[in-house]
Structures are given as structure tokens and as C-alpha cells.
Amino acid sequence: MRAIVITSEKIFADEYMYIKVMLDYGIDNIHIRKPFEDTNNIRLLLDCIDKEYHNRLTLNGNFQLLEIYKNIKAIHVNSRNHNIPKSFNGRVSYSCHSLKEIKDKKEKFDYMFLSPVYDSISKTGYRANFSYNELKRANEEGIIDNKIFALGGVTPEKIPELKELGFGGVVFMGYIWNSKNINEVIDKVKLIKSYM
Question: Given a cut of 80, is residue 137 above it in pLDDT?
Fold first, then answer.
């Protein structure tokens, strides 16, 4: 099972350090998702991250930066950023919100996020879209497998259930970014790893 973190929407001071420590402590990949940031600001963030970590980053937009940051070999497409650059031959992931979407598009992508699997931690009123029994049945039918990653309300304590349901990975956002400081983030990543 793999662990992914999606960045907060806005760039904040020393974010590059948070990204570095999460990767150092065992997060497999960080999705750089900054829908409201200028491309130059994202470039400044990427410049602060050592090149040795770039192969563990995924761009969730601003795909033109792939021309500059050659070690970034993964992109994430969604309804907002759905055009895969023609010359790109790295990993491509996708966000979906229904089991039908997975069935229809699974073969096109290296892995997919399914959300919201649980009630959101950070978005008020954003409720789980699936029951346990629906997810269990989807696993038995081969819809949920190691290419599908659970997103939405995921905490470390839920990892055993998500493993049992056949998910190939877990994706964290609110759980990580509700932290007070970098030491709390490190403790949370250690807890995530203890459940993997």
C-alpha cells in the first residue's frame, strides 16, 4: 500500500521543508496541487525542493513546468486539467467520484483516486459517498484494486479497513494540513507508516 499527500491549495512559508520531511519519513509521493497559485509561484516552490525529490512529485496542473523540471515524471488529470501533454510519457493519475467512473476509465490511468471515501476532515458537509458494503462489493467485483487510492477523510486508523477493502493506496490532505507545525506533521507521517 502506498501513501500520497496532496499539498494545501496555497503556498505557505517553508512548505518545501514540509514536503522534504514527509518524503524523508516515508510518504511515497506528493501531489503539487495549487489551483489558485500563479505558475511562477509554483516554480519558486519547486526550485526550493532538492532535485533528488522531484521524481516523487506529481503535478496536478501547470504541466508546462514539465519542460523545466525533467525529473518530475508524473501528472494528475481531472476536469480542470484534463489534457495530457503530447510528449509526456510518465505516470498519469486521475480523480473520480463514482465506481462507474473507475470502471469506464481505469485502463487509461496508472492509478486513480476515489473520493470521498469518508466524511471530509477539512471540508464541512462534504460527506462520504460510499457505504462500507458498496466498497466491499466493488472490491469483490475487481473494481477496487491496487490501482485505486482512497481519498477523503482518511486517517491512519482507517488504513487497516482500506487494506481490507483492497485499496492500493491512501491519500491525505486535511489530516496532514490541520497540523500546527512541522514536528506534528512528522509525528503524523510516522503514525501513517505504522499502519502501512
Answer: yes
Measure the CA–CA gap between 3 and 189, rounded to whole angstroms.
Answer: 9
Coil, strand, or helix at residue 52?
A: helix
Determine the residue type at 21: V
Q: Alpha carbon of 100 to those of 86, 103, 138, 185, 188: distances in Å?
A: 27, 5, 10, 35, 33
- Rg (the chain; Cα; Å): 16
pLDDT, mean over the chain = 94
Question: Does residue 59 sit in helix, strand or coil?
Answer: strand
pTM: 0.94
Q: Specify whether the CB–CB gap between 65 and 43 falls below 8 A.
A: yes
Q: pLDDT for 110-134, tens place per residue?
A: 999 999 999 888 777 788 899 999 9
- Between vectors from CA 166 to CA 160 and to CA 168, what angle results, nearest 5°? 90
Q: Which residues contact 29 (CB under 8 A, 6 or more apart)?
A: 2, 4, 5, 56, 57, 58, 74
- The values of phi and psi at residue 24, to 5°, are -60, -35
How many alpha carbons lie under 13 Å from residue 133 in its C-beta half-sphere? 0
Joined grid coordinates for residue 195: 499502519
